[in-house]
């Protein structure tokens, strides 16, 4: 498990005074402002963020030291990380996406399917991407209890109830 968790990203400038638009990956979007200084994944840069207001597609924020639109635009695409120990503990049936990436995926018969390569959420629920061992293209499946009935982060595996390929 990674010691850093990505909790957001800078989507670009908002206005002309150095304000940025943040995309929050927190279940409660405004929580991104409560975890203290955020950093890049390699730790080379640190950001002190103050949320200002909701904006289209995210949250408006000021970053200490960023005063111009050009400085804000230069940060576009920067992912924001926080040390795991600053985040709350999760109930047994919830997981940080970072903890799922790299887990081995097995079917309900115990056969290795592949590895979890990504988790997506485009607004209608989480989707798990599995890079399969026997197929050319990735498997994209709903991350629901019906499809993924078992997640064992400690053992490094998930169990996947693959949909019937006949379409029935």
What does the secondary structure layout of this molecule look like, with pairings?
Layout (H helix, E strand, L loop, with lengths): L3 E10 L6 E5 L13 E2 L6 E2 L1 E7 L2 E6 L5 H6 L4 E5 L13 H4 L3 E4 L4 E10 L4 E7 L6 E4 L7 E3 L4 E4 L8
Parallel strand pairs: 8-13
Antiparallel strand pairs: 1-2, 1-7, 2-6, 3-4, 5-6, 8-9, 9-10, 10-11, 12-13
What would you note in describing this structure?
By secondary structure, the protein is mainly β. The protein has 2 helices and 13 strands; from the N terminus they run E-E-E-E-E-E-H-E-H-E-E-E-E-E-E. The chain has helices spanning 69-74, 97-100, and strands at residues 4-13, 20-24, 38-39, 46-47, 49-55, 58-63, 79-83, 104-107, 112-121, 126-132, 139-142, 150-152, 157-160. Strand 8 (104-107) and strand 9 (112-121) form a beta hairpin. The chain is elongated. The chain starts with a strand and ends in an 8-residue tail after the last strand. 21% of the residues are buried. The mean pLDDT is 90.
Strand order of the largest sheet: 11-10-9-8-13-12
**Major sheet:** 6 strands, mixed
Low-confidence stretches: none
- Total beta-strand segments: 13
- If you compute it from the alpha carbons, what radius of gyration comes out, rounded to the nearest whole angstrom? 19 Å
Helix segment tally: 2
Identify the overall geometry: elongated
Span between termini: 38 Å
Give the rounded overall mean pLDDT.
90
Which series of helices and strands comes N to C? EEEEEEHEHEEEEEE
Strand coverage percent: 35-45%
Classify the helix fraction into a percent range. under 10%
Structural class: mainly beta
């Amino acid at each position: 498990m990674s010691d850093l968790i990505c909790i957001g990203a800078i989507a670009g400038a908002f206005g002309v005074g150095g304000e940025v638009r943040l995309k929050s990956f927190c279940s409660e979007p405004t929580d991104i402002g409560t975890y203290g200084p955020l950093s890049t994944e390699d730790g080379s840069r640190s950001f002190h963020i103050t949320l200002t207001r909701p904006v289209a597609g995210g949250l408006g924020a000021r970053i200490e030291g960023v005063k111009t639109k050009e400085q804000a635009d230069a940060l576009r695409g920067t992912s924001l990380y926080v040390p795991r120990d600053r985040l709350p503990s999760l109930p047994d049936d919830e997981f940080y996406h970072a903890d799922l990436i790299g887990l081995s995926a097995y079917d309900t018969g115990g056969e290795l399917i592949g590895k979890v390569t990504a988790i997506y959420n485009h607004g209608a629920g989480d989707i798990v991407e599995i890079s399969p061992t026997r197929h050319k293209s990735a498997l994209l499946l709903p991350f629901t209890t019906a499809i993924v009935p078992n997640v064992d982060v400690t053992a490094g595996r998930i169990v996947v109830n693959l949909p019937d390929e006949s379409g029935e």
